[in-house]
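Give me the fold.
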Amino acid sequence: MKKLYIISVTSFMMFLVFSIHATGQRHQTPEMLFGANLIEAREYYQDKVEEGVDSLIPVYADVLYLSGHNQDALEMFRLAESKNLELNKAQQRNFSHLAQKLGQSSPYDQETGYFSTKWHAVVQVEAYCNNSSNEDFAPFSWNDLLFITSSRTDRETKNRDRYDLTGLPFLNVYAFDQDCRTADTGFMPPSLKTSLHDGPLTISADTNIVVITRNYEDPNDDGAQNLYLGYYTRDNNGWSREKTLPFNDPAYNVQHPYFDDNTSTLYFSSDMPGGHGGFDIYTSEWDGNEWGEPTNMGPEVNSSYDEVFPAISPDGLLIYASNHIETKGGLDLVMFKNDTRHLLPEPFNTVYDDYGITFSSETTGYFSSNRGLEAFRDNIYSFAIQPVPFVVKITDSDTGQNIEGVEVAYRAEDPQLVGETVTSAAGEAIVHEGHTDPFNMTLHFSAEGYEDMEVTTDNFVYEDDRWLLTHHLEPEPVEPEEEILDAGYFVVYFDNDRPDPDSWATTTTSVYDEVYQQYLDRQQKYFERSANSRTQIEEFFNEVEQGMSQLEWFANYVLGELEKGNEFHLLITSHTSPLARQEYNMALSERRFVAVKNFFNSFKNGALKEYFEGEALSYEHNPYGETRSDPGVSSDPQDLARSVYGVDAARERRVTITWELMTNER
């Protein structure tokens, strides 16, 4: 029942096998009616369904789907489901694809891994400059020309018979140059256009072979004017008359030619007997005079659905279209590589029909799609394709800032990869470009001021058309000696109103290391109550800890120098935030200074105390209170998130120590 099969298709452009009725005068059975006119078919099946012929509901759903009445078609499929009507395999596929197109699901959705989705590319797609309001599809790039198959209306077609199925002119082949102007095709066979469908076609590189899809002039025993492949050859005497491939037969369709010059092989699609179901991809070799027997490409390529529109990429890979139930929807472009069927990524494939690819260079070309368009309004799209960059991004683990100038060495075994690069100002470096999923890569990072790091990982994340791996480098630990001697001073910090809160005293028995530990213990309170982010709080408390480390190192340093007979003079300033009254803050400054002095006096069981009491270790103290705090720091007692727990206020609560070392030469 050939017509019942045809009802199951999702796109007229898939194979163009519907009956041609140039005169439109013949007795029409329900099956023939579908082939003759979609409008009449819709009306016929609608009437039958309304009369209660439930068995025709799936057929009616298919007719609606093919006509582009998607919502109505889905409702009919849902109705068939609710009535437990049996759907054939193709109808199940159409139900699934239609549901996907409308953002829904069906009971027939499948995901068995029939296709791989692990081939990736950065693809730019644009509508072709010479699309019409009718069907434009099956582009074929040849030298600097683009041949397309189209039902557009022009001077030659406007008065011709139209195809009853769509009401559009019969298909013809048109050629355009790179500026989208109609091209001179005087070099082609003179009888390329007939009164019925012509196209798609293929042309050999030397222009000595042209193969074209056409309709038989007369219907077969089933009443169908199927498709065949005609071909022309050229020699010194010019073009031959049309010949037909030896395996053409009116009982089935042979269509969608692609001639591979590198192997002298013709690829095509056919529903001839003996295939895997629906349309299959076949090959036939050209020996210079004759075509060889057709060879089915086997179950690795062909399925029980339809595989059509074969083409060969510049690197020799087969790319074809399939409407298998596991495509993204409708026809999708499939690349056959290393015995694996790869669905091409978006924006090549969509929930619509995407098919008929041709390459004009290694990375550019054209394909067909009816994305977002009405039924039988397929268009041509140009594409530019690039491999996906694998990018590493390196940041500082403490600050999160990008690190420029990181030396990145990388290597991998599969694929074999080895190289070196350096990160940009954005902290990024490209370590590979390809079309695969991430793979295990060993990366070694080194940068001045940071600890070296080596990782082996495939943990790249796909975003913004690239595979991205972000890593943080740890700054090399800086010894307090290096930092203090470099800067000439250091700072220690205090919690709010510490030591001895609510006291007007100017002295204290508190020792700074005890005050410091109490400050650290309250870090969680700052996380909970501060107006600043957790990251900002963490960064500030890192400075608090650093100040304590520097104070301990400095005390050791001072003791060592004093024991050598050298002398020190310390300049110590103490500060507060502006939260309280000025008099109170001056007293608090004094207590903070005393807490630090108590630390020095108690250091190593009082080892420094005798030097303070003598002349070798002298100091000058300036209590500033709030007088040198930043004017922007909050002093609002009602806004504790900023005036107490804010980082800006916390930085004001400090003691700063500057020194002068006086060496005694002996």
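The chain has four domains: 2-101, 122-386, 388-473, 480-662.
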